[in-house]
Each structure stands twice: as structure tokens, then as C-alpha cells.
Amino acid sequence: MAIRVLLVDDQPLLRTGFRMILEAEQELAVVGEAGDGLQALDQVRALQPDVVLMDIRMPRMDGVEATRQITGPGRDGPAKVLVLTTFDLDEYVVEALRAGASGFLLKDAPATELVQAIRVVAAGEAMLAPSITRRLLDKYAGHLPSGEEPVPDTLHTLTEREVEVLKLVARGLSNAEIAADLFVSETTVKTHVGHVLTKLGLRDRVQAAVYAYESGLVRPGAQ
């Protein structure tokens, strides 16, 4: 089945460009467009897309709030949000990740990268490398806890090894790198990551990295 994509951007010319790129791919289907966050919510309800390409800065309702309403608690729909931004360190991207986005992509990314990002997000994974998440969090460390706050109770549900894995995810390591660091198989790492996400109620490793910083488990800039 084709991956159903909704395009959300306040610039019609950009939406047209994205549509042309995506409709050239057999396994992708652009099911609709929206020019702001409010239209996006209506379109998500009506069209049930698998992936929403979401601009950040739009009139009426921005991409952060729209993302929060699409992916927040109690939402049972399939839609995953892939944030589009002009700047690779847009401060709003951090808020979008916190709101439930599965990752972000630069608007000037190559067409092949856009297509691959949609495939990855539709499969339920995070499309951006955790190292990018860490770079974002480090830049906007002033918005995050100092690390002196009490550790959240949910963190105590993790085993020692799961905490280790969570720290390495937040540091930007891939599953292969974590496996090498801990002297275990990639399959074992994938299982641990799955347990971490389930126990903490997180969607993907992007949110896991955000959680690690916000909980104070990992300090911005720490190695």
C-alpha cells in the first residue's frame, strides 16, 4: 500500500515542488495539502495520512501546536509528523520534537533524502540521527533542566542496562555503535531500545533523547 502523505506549508510554490517530487515515487501518495496548522488538523481528520510534512512557521496555528494536537495523548490515528524547517537549528524544532514530531528535515534537502525520510517515519522510526537531536538540545540547553531536579519516577522503571542504552541514544550513537560500546549484538540493543520506549511511553528514539535531557539523565554538552 502507498504511504499517504499530507503536505502542510504556507507557501503554495513549496507544496507544489514537494508534490512533484513525491508523486514521482510509486509507493508515495500525496492525499492533500494545507496552508496552516488549523487546515492541517482538518485534513488529518478527513484524510487519515500516514505522514504529515509539517512546516513550523505558519499563520493562524503554527506547526508546533498542530503537531501537538496530531500526535498528543489520546490520538489513535496513524499520522506521524516530519517537521520541515528552513534553518537546521530552528529553535522551534526542539519544541516540535517535544510535541511529538518524529524528526525534522531541511527544506533544501535533496529529493532522495526527503523520500527516504518519509519512508523511515512511516515505518515508525525516527528519521533524524540522534546526533542531530543532541546538537539541537545542546544549542538550546537554556530551555532544559539543569540536572539538579529530582529524577522522574518513570526512570526507575528501567533496568541498569536500559538506562545505559538510553544514555547512549541521547549521546547520538546508532544501534551498531551502542552494540560495540556494550559488547552485545545489534538485535539486543534494538530490544533494549524497544523496552525503553514502551516503559517510558515514548514514540521513538528522538523522544527518548529529548527525555534523557529533560529528565537530567544526560547533561547538555556532556560526553
Automatic annotation (TrEMBL):
Keywords: DNA-binding, Phosphoprotein, Transcription, Transcription regulation. Residues 151-216 form the HTH luxR-type domain. Residues 4-122 form the Response regulatory domain. Transmembrane segments: none annotated. The modification 4-aspartylphosphate is found at D55. PANTHER family: TRANSCRIPTIONAL REGULATORY PROTEIN NARL-RELATED, TWO-COMPONENT RESPONSE REGULATOR. This is Response regulator transcription factor. It comes from Streptomyces coffeae. The lineage of its organism: Bacteria, Bacillati, Actinomycetota, Actinomycetes, Kitasatosporales.
